[in-house]
Each structure stands twice: as C-alpha cells, then as structure tokens.
Write a structure and sequence with these properties.
Number of helices: 18
Strand content: under 5%
Number of strands: 2
Strand order of the largest sheet: 1-2
Distance between the termini: 16 Å
Structural class: mainly alpha
Largest sheet: 2 strands, antiparallel
Length: 384
C-alpha cells in the first residue's frame, strides 16, 4: 500500500531520490536533511511564496474576510444555524478560537488565521521529517515544494487542516491504525473529501477493523455534537449546498464552455458569483455539462471501486508518486487562481490566453488521474 513507502527506513529509500525531486543548485546547508536544513528550507520556501503574493497579488484574502464577517454576524445577533452553511459545523472549532483571541476583531482574526495555518504547515513538516527517518525523505522534499507551488492561498483558507490531517492519517496507518481512523473522521468533519481515503486505509488487512471502528465512533460523536448544537438542517446543509451548486468555471466539465466563451465573449455565456458563493458559468449548454459531470463522476467512482477491488488482492503494492506533475499542476492552478483570476472571469484581451492556461491545467489534471489509475492497473495486473 502507499503507506509503506512513506514509512520505510533510510536504507530502503536513499536521500538521493529526494534531491532528484528538488533538482536545484542549493547550498549544502539546505540539502543536508537535518533539522536545521529542513527549517531553513521551509522558511526560505514559505518566504518566497509570500514574495510571489506581494508581487502578483490576486483575490487571496477573500475567504478569510468572509470567515471573519460570518463569525462577526454569528456573535452579534446571528445564528449558528445560518453561519458558514456550506461547511460542516466542526469547522467553527478551527475558526472561533482565533476570532475570540483577536477580541472579535475581523482584522485581528485575519492575521491570527494566517499565522495558525503557518503553524499547521510547520508542525506537519516537522512531523513528516520525524516520521520518515529524520532526513530529507521523498515525502519531506515533496511537501517542501508542493505547498509553495499551491501558493499563499494555502494559508488563507482552512483546507490545509483537513489535508494535513489526512497526511497524518497516512503516516499513522502502519503503527497507529486507531489514529488513522480518528484523523480521517476529523478531516471529513471539516471538509468531507477525506472520506475518499477511507477505502485506501482499509486495503491493509492488519488494523482494518481498528481503523473502521475508530472512524465510525469519531464520526458518530462529531455528528451527534453537531446535531445537538445546530440541528438536523445545519448538519446536512454542506451536502445540500454542494449538491445545489452549478458549474464552476475552473471545473473540467466547464472547460469546453469556457473555450467557447473566448469565441463568443458576449451574450451567450455569463460568468458571475452564484448564490452558493462560487464563480459559475451560465448560458447555453450548462445544464448538459452538469449532467455530463454527474455521469462522469459516477463512472469515476465505479472505476475507483474496481481498482480498489484489484488492490485488495495485493495490498502491499506501492503506487508510484507522480510528484513533479502534481507540482506543475499546482503552479498552473496558482496562476489561474488567485493570481490572474480576474482576467479569466472578466472579458478582455487576456480572456483567450487565460482560458488556454485553464485548459492546460485541466488537461494535466486529467492526465495525472489517468497515470495514477494506469499505475494501479499495472501494479495489480500480475495478481489479478
């Protein structure tokens, strides 16, 4: 399983693989792999990310300001049931502390929120370094590069928290399967998507029941607390909210319509923020694209289930990490959003090149998914 490669001893996974991933002419102090070099590399890479933010800007602070306004409304006459309805209730647990610490100031909250995300990144980097042999392992090298590739947006949204929880769940799988179940459940309680990792964790026969039990108990407790404090409607509102959304412009199914929009920029299609706080495309063919998206999603889930069944017969087979391609996709995504997002949304001279950049990013994303699926097929073919 993929977790075995993360937990190998230093002899099994030489540090040269990590340095090959970096491929940069860096001083030895940055590539030694000890605690000091990791800390220096982390600091330099994150500082460079903030410099890019200062040079290019973009609507990166919008989400944090939205969180702050929502919390302000909740504390000053609003209702918990109507606060951040698109997210599960436990999300408030990682936002309210900063808001209270900042004396209910929206400005202080923004600074404290970004600082807390930086702390989450730093702690996870240290944890990853320790769990993979206290060296510049492939996992550490990838994380040091991947987060800057995603851009400063990683610190201006809370998505980093469920991502780190899922990463920690992967690391805990071999020796602490109970924590894998707990961490996955908490990640699901914050952003829903980590649930897709649960079948992967259940591939490993050892600890399978422990993972599932811990996940079920933690999920039940968090759901019961959410139900008690906010009611049933608020408990299911994130699912209803996501199901009612239209066609977001960055999505793969929207790509043909976004390309067509470059040819007919006026009258046929419109791009605007919907009532679901997403930038969506409206006009001819949108309904068909949404239906196609639903069908493709169902087919993708069936394909994943099929690959999972194949992997069950060989749970210790590793899956090759396509790290470089994922980093390239992340850089493309950063330029699409937030750096040049305004040029993509608003019709102008930059609309065609920005739409082509979005198309290239989505094509790479599809290619990445295909390569990952093909690798699983290849690895399990000999035992099927």
């Amino acid at each position: 399983m993929a977790t075995t490669e993360l937990t190998r001893s230093p002899a099994d996974s030489p540090s040269s693989r990590s340095r090959a991933l970096l491929r940069l002419s860096l001083p030895a102090v940055f590539t030694a792999g000890d605690a000091r070099s990791i800390a220096l590399t982390w600091t330099a890479s994150r500082a460079a990310m903030l410099v890019v933010l200062g040079l290019f800007g973009g609507p990166v602070t919008g989400d944090v300001r939205y969180y702050a306004r929502s919390l302000h409304s909740m504390f000053y006459g609003g209702s918990l049931r109507l606060t951040l309805q698109e997210y599960p209730v436990p999300v408030l647990g990682i936002m309210v502390p900063q808001f209270v610490t900042g004396a209910f100031s929206t400005v202080a909250f923004a600074f404290l929120f970004v600082a807390s995300m930086l702390a989450v990144d730093a702690v996870f980097t240290a944890f990853l370094w320790r769990m993979t042999g206290r060296r510049l392992s492939p996992a550490v090298a990838f994380w040091l590069l991947f987060l800057p590739a995603t851009g400063a947006l990683a610190y201006f949204r809370f998505d980093l928290v469920p991502a780190v929880l899922t990463g920690a769940a992967v690391l805990a799988m071999v020796r602490r399967p109970r924590w894998t179940g707990v961490l996955t459940a908490v990640g699901v309680a914050l952003k829903l998507w980590p649930v897709v990792m649960l079948p992967v964790f259940l591939l490993r026969r050892t600890g399978r029941a422990t993972v599932l039990t811990a996940f079920a108990i933690t999920t039940g407790v968090l759901a019961a607390v959410s139900l008690a404090v906010a009611g049933y409607a608020r408990l299911v509102s994130p699912i209803n909210w996501q199901g009612a959304r239209g066609l977001q412009i960055e999505s793969v199914p929207a790509t043909p319509l976004m390309l067509a929009r470059t040819v007919h920029p006026h009258g046929v299609w419109a791009v605007r923020t919907s009532t679901y706080k997403a930038t969506e495309i409206f006009g001819a063919g949108v309904h068909a694209a949404v239906l196609a998206s639903a069908v493709l999603t169902a087919l993708a889930l069936l394909a994943l289930a099929w690959l999972w069944l194949r992997c069950r017969r060989a749970p210790e087979q590793g899956v090759r990490r396509i790290a470089r391609l994922l980093i390239v996709v992340s850089v493309f995504t950063q330029f699409v959003y937030p750096i040049w997002y305004g040029r993509l949304v608003n019709v102008g001279w930059a609309t065609p090149p920005m739409t082509l950049l979005l198309t290239a990013r989505n094509a790479l994303l599809c290619w990445l998914a295909w390569l990952a699926g093909a690798e699983v097929w290849r690895r399990t073919r000999v035992v099927s």
